[in-house]
Amino acid sequence: xxxxxxxxxxxxxxxxxxxxxxxxxxxxxxxxxxxxxxxxxxxxxxxxxxxxxxxxxxxxxxxxxxxxxxxxxxxxxxxxxxxxxxxxxxxxxxxxxxxxxxxxxxxxxxxxxxxxxxxxxxxxxxxxxxxxxxxxxxxxxxxxxxxxxxxxxxxxxxxxxxxxxxxxxxxxxxxxxxxxxxxxxxxxxxxxxxxxxxxxxxxxxxxxxxxxxxxxxxxxxxxxxxxxxxxxxxxxxxxxxxxxxxxxxxxxxxxxxxxxxxxxxxxxxxxxxxxxxxxxxxxxxxxxxxxxxxxxxxxxxxxxxxxxxxxxxxxxxxxxxxxxxxxxxxxxxxxxxxxxxxxxxxxxxxxxxxxxxxxxxxxxxxxxxxxxxxxxxxxxxxxxxxxxxxxxxxxxxxxxxxxxxxxxxxxxxxxxxxxxxxxxxxxxxxxxxxxxxxxxxxxxxxxxxxxxxxxxxxxxxxxxxxxxxxxxxxxxxxxxxxxxxxxxxxxxxxxxxxxxxxxxxxxxxxxxxxxxxxxxxxxxxxxxxxxxxxxxxxxxxxxxxxxxxxxxxxxxxxxxxxxxxxxxxxxxxxxxxxxxxxxxxx
Amino acid sequence: xxxxxxxxxxxxxxxxxxxxxxxxxxxxxxxxxxxxxxxxxxxxxxxxxxxxxxxxxxxxxxxxxxxxxxxxxxxxxxxxxxxxxxxxxxxxxxxxxxxxxxxxxxxxxxxxxxxxxxxxxxxxxxxxxxxxxxxxxxxxxxxxxxxxxxxxxxxxxxxxxxxxxxxxxxxxxxxxxxxxxxxxxxxxxxxxxxxxxxxxxxxxxxxxxxxxxxxxxxxxxxxxxxxxxxxxxxxxxxxxxxxxxxxxxxxxxxxxxxxxxxxxxxxxxxxxxxxxxxxxxxxxxxxxxxxxxxxxxxxxxxxxxxxxxxxxxxxxxxxxxxxxxxxxxxxxxxxxxxxxxxxxxxxxxxxxxxxxxxxxxxxxxxxxxxxxxxxxxxxxxxxxxxxxxxxxxxxxxxxxxxxxxxxxxxxxxxxxxxxxxxxxxxxxxxxxxxxxxxxxxxxxxxxxxxxxxxxxxxxxxxxxxxxxxxxxxxxxxxxxxxxxxxxxxxxxxxxxxxxxxxxxxxxxxxxxxxxxxxxxxxxxxxxxxxxxxxxxxxxxxxxxxxxxxxxxxxxxxxxxxxxxxxxxxxxxxxxxxxxxxxxxxxxxxxxxxxxxxxxxxxxxxxxxxxx
Lengths: 586, 611
Fold this sequence. Notes:
Chain A has 586 residues and is mainly β. Helix content of chain A is 5%, strand content 47%.
């Protein structure tokens, strides 16, 4: 949240901003210079109407997808000609996403507005031409209207939310997060276009939990309201849009801003009973459903004063918890349990949070699998997270846990303080780390810690060793579809994803990272370290417009041995007769 | 949206290389509750009615503004920015579609700062609107293309030469009818551009094309669109040409510190059309690469500048701006050579208080706060008053000292500079500026001033200015501040009737009032000279004056623009010959005044000069 406010400040006071959001990223020498050994992708874009007429002038952009990360610069781009054909030339071998840029259109079978954001995985090998990457487009519909506040004044720069009115709002198949952010102008007028035909609820504002958080953090009291003036999604009037049609007058009148209250209290040392100053305090919002689960949490820059006092203003009625947030630079390091409180229709005073000295984790990290100095120098950039979960949770108390970033020093050492007692789970954040690193083994006093490191209250743990693996192996996979052991084909429109986990390794943020399998059944993963991996393939057939649910496809697992370097080709057997996975709301 | 914000943050960091210094300063001050307080105030609309839910932000000025506090105005428009350490703050308020009314100091190249304890009224005015339709050659609407408006002149028609104003992301996409609407615009003249945003997400089908400028032109012959405060300029329809864009590419050379990119440093190249007040495109070089390329460029003349940006390295450099002409083909092989930038550092020091029985003693209203002063360096080279680089990177020539008075101005090109000091209290004045203990290998490089002895020249130079060679780091420039300042306000009036109007037909706005030291031994002390512009009602004001005897003299300003463009004006007294003339004329006019310590004169009447 600090980052957010910094950001807004920066955007506003310093300048211009914008220019930067369009900063170009790539160096020209990255662009393909030589067509030799490169490949091409071709296809045709047509209207999904009965005439199937070609659509000229549609943009196609290819972006690289490396180690599960999208590269933001276009690797190639093309525009369809009068015959609707396009050709992306000089494409080097690699993993890509193919994006179609057709503002005002929708891609058949998708729910993404504005004809943008639709992307498709394509894995390209050297010297091949991939044909028939075709798209059928339909002219999108329009919803337009005006958003005003309770006094009739226009609500400016307010983002619209579009919700599919199929089934009930919680189990519906898709909530459209408008890709480009449709918002109101200075008159309160909005115009959403390129929408797939369907039935929608049109809303502004946020859900209850996030509204409570943004009120407490920023003071902004946002009223969640749907067309025409419903504060609950279920009461919203459903708007129907036909293909290429226009729904006008879809106005929204905001409910008056809700009343807010404040909560005050003190942070006291659990042992001495003395107030503790200069502690960063945070709050959590309980799941409005009534469970003991703290969903959203956050903190401002605020710290307890000399009297150990803390204060939250702008709290919407609801259930909250207050606790200490361990932050770098806050010394000494304290932790606390989450102290629940409830805001009804009055300010709250006299809350007491008992704080205790936290435990410390110290040790050394090392890299195996390379002696390359350049690689070893990147160790300090590896991002690790430490989550502490209570060892013996009390069922009637809110579960807080703790999560902190662990920074490795250039000499490999690390230390992290302010930890609560419990089981410390270390995880590598592959999205923020240099490519090719994995966390393979955690030791304490030379003994491997499979289940995480047990930390006592205030304990100084100093003999931790983190062994990281580094690898450059590339896995090239091919999905082989079967049904009852016989060769078969995927259903039309099916999307399959593959994730991989190193067996015997430590949990990683990329375990859940899934690679999209392209239409030819191929997938590529780079930067793998040697070892045994479990590959998991799962998939679904997305719902067609108007349908309430997609169709789940089976989950299939397979073990693969990855060598130290080079490439490995993998054939992944995907048997459609296996048990389908349960459908989960996306 | 999120991405745009994050990128905005990234740019802010790269343009604010002092932000780490700021953090350190804050950390050092943490816990010193006594040196903290709040800035409070109200946000109102044009009608004076309170505006609720406006975002108010305070940025502390230490080298560059760094985020300090944020608040939201309540139902009565009130806000409190609490727990701020003493310092100089820029306070701004934001509400979509609205703008803070222009800073009255903006015209003189300065900014209004707020301090702990201040109560400020922030007035938001409705921004202007530009709206129209974008169609292609066949008259069909162009859907989903970015339209952006760049301000090129202020409300008075002056061309913007420096990146002075915050520019907020205001580009909009056309809708399915080709209609765009850009709102929240400052009054002034704009050029309106369709497409050509470069190749950064979100992608549009038009990215590789050159932008088309209103009405259907290249950048060089674009028609300006005038926007009045709160008014709508409609019918700004654009025929999109969709022409192939050109590429400007090249390399950046120059030595970087070891581990520059490992420590998070990168090199950014900025591209600006010659007539634009600020860059329109940026290119961030990937680590280890020296090449850059801007795609989708329309024909025209552009300036390019490269600068390394880093939050960790104490390293500043920039290439001289390089002009490039694009005429129907790509421009390749542009080389931008980084040259290190210099810095100046020193301390703002308060003289010890005089004993109470001293006849000059007068007690200041409160204890001095060095961290609320502003120290600025302004280019002093004749004919180069506007630093070209300032159009590319804003806000690098002004800072507030730390709580010990220590200051550093970085990112300075080689050249001569004036040192400008703004004191927060009217009770203090700058008594002297001097170089202290200059290390032998880092001598002051004052250029001798003509017709002065070498000793005088060095002293004179040190008093109000300094010179830097390429990459030089000048230290020990101390600013000595004393209590007991005097103040003088008055008006220029026709000698005959005293009515304040201008019988000779010279607008008061074209006058400047000069203050000249009457004591002969102070004839070359530039700190004793001062200039004031004259308001339309003939009034002028001087503050933070050293006690003593002065002559006053009203003279026509050296400009024929109304209001005068004095953002870059060099004080007349800086020039040796002009100073001698000024003294002679002032002595002849013989309008003199003696100012005692702490004296405030508010009703001085100065005869209007004869034509």
